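Q: I'm writing a short methods note and want an example of a predicted protein-small molecule complex. Could you take the sequence and the SMILES for zinc ion and return the bound structure as tokens? Please keep the output block clean; save any remarks for afterwards.
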Amino acid sequence: MYCKNCGKEIDDNSTFCPYCGQQINENTDYYYTGNNNNNNIKKESQVIGILAIIFSALGGWLGIIFAIIGLATYKEKSNRNLCKIALGICAAWVILLIITIFCALI
Ligand SMILES: [Zn+2]
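A: Understood, no commentary inside the block.
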């Protein structure tokens, strides 16, 4: 097998890479994937927030859905704020829609 860190060929039974000292075991894999997943979740969260704002700006109901999903998944304040902004834009659209309906009725 090959070392994940430096890419050099190492013995299959090695627990450490003799070239760079990288730990080669299941725990390393677990932490490695774990970190990757955390990064992916962060990126996904930002994507949800951005989508929420885009769809809410377009007046689509998807904006509300994305904002709610984002608020449910977000842990970071800045990301939660993105969803709150999206919800605010959606609320503005709903008010605009109500005003339009009222004007149409009058
Ligand atoms: Zn190595």
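A: Remarks, as requested: The radius of gyration is 24 Å. Helices lie at 26-57, 62-73, 77-105.
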